[in-house]
Design brief:
This protein is an alpha/beta fold and 252 residues long. The protein is built from nine helices and seven strands. The structure holds NADP nicotinamide-adenine-dinucleotide phosphate. InterPro entries: NAD(P)-bd_dom_sf, Sc_DH/Rdtase_CS, SDR_fam.
């Protein structure tokens, strides 16, 4: 059973929120985790300690996913610490304050697409280069974090973010076909309203709870509830899933 063996996993944006929850669950399986973060070193070190407490190993790696050299370096640092990477969680992502497109600056749009799209593509490319069996790799699993916004569109709030996540869905479809034959399963998760700090970073800390009336289950989801699906896709349970885009939204 793959789940019993030590696996090396890289999680971008692993210091907080959904990425941290996934890192801790990897730790519970005894896996080793590269915990990438952008700037919050304290949070990254806390995550490392929590993974180790759970029974795994972890290393914190600073790097911006929108910078090519940083992406290459985070893969290298993970493999240096723990050996060949078997799974990548393409999780780092940002939102910006809610507003209509007419109000958005070009700088905001560039940052949104640089981190959420260019960053995700660079991470996926490095996963393809290192894990692809056609390049001497051992194959593996790539899990992309999209969003329910990709199908809701987020009008008057985050059409930029929603579009960036639409790109993740399309990338997932293409790469599942491109990389499946090369030993890499590629799937995406579309979380709905999840209670993490991402809403505060968009200027609306109470957003997940405020909008919970739109959720058939009547509440926001937790980072753990998304992480459980990440682990399913990383592990042996997901061995025949490829090209799936799975909503974890409470039905929203
Ligand atoms: P979060 O709590 O805001 O955490 C974001 C994480 O990404 C942090 O670890 C942060 O590092 C890291 N990060 C941000 N920019 C980065 C960059 N340029 N390079 C590397 N790391 C970067 O976010 P979350 O709610 O867990 O969201 C995780 C993913 O799920 C995102 O892709 C998000 O779009 C998606 N998602 C979330 C929700 C939700 O409701 N929460 C819903 C749908 C989809 P630092 O700690 O160093 O800042």
């Amino acid at each position: 059973m793959t789940n019993r063996m030590t696996q090396t996993i890289l999680i971008t944006g692993g210091s907080r929120g959904i990425g941290r929850a996934a890192a801790i669950m990897c730790g519970k399986r005894g896996w080793s985790v590269g915990v990438n973060y952008a700037g919050n070193e304290l949070a990254a070190q806390e995550t490392v300690a929590l993974v180790e407490k759970a029974g795994g190993k972890a290393v914190a790696i600073r790097g911006d996913v929108s910078v090519e050299a940083d992406v290459i370096a985070m893969f290298a640092a993970t493999e240096k610490a723990f050996g060949t990477i078997a799974g990548v969680v393409n999780n780092a992502g940002i939102v910006a304050p809610g507003m209509a497109l007419a109000e958005m600056s070009a700088e905001r749009l560039a940052r949104m697409f640089n981190v959420n799209v260019l960053g995700a593509y660079l991470v996926a490319r490095e996963a393809a280069r290192r894990m692809g069996t056609d390049r001497g790799g051992k194959g593996g699993s790539l899990v992309n974090l999209s969003s329910a916004a990709a199908r809701l569109g987020s009008p008057n709030e985050y059409v930029d973010y929603a579009g960036s996540k639409g790109a993740i869905d399309t990338m997932t479809i293409g790469l599942s076909k491109e990389l499946g034959p090369r030993g890499i399963r590629v799937n995406a998760i579309r979380p709905g309203l999840i209670d993490t700090e991402i809403h505060a970073s968009g200027g609306a800390p109470d957003r997940a709870f405020r909008l919970a009336t739109q959720v058939p289950l009547g509440r926001p989801g937790t980072a753990d509830e998304v992480a459980a699906m990440i682990l399913f896709l990383l592990g042996e349970e997901g061995s025949y899933l490829n090209g799936a885009i799975i909503d974890v939204t409470g039905g929203r």
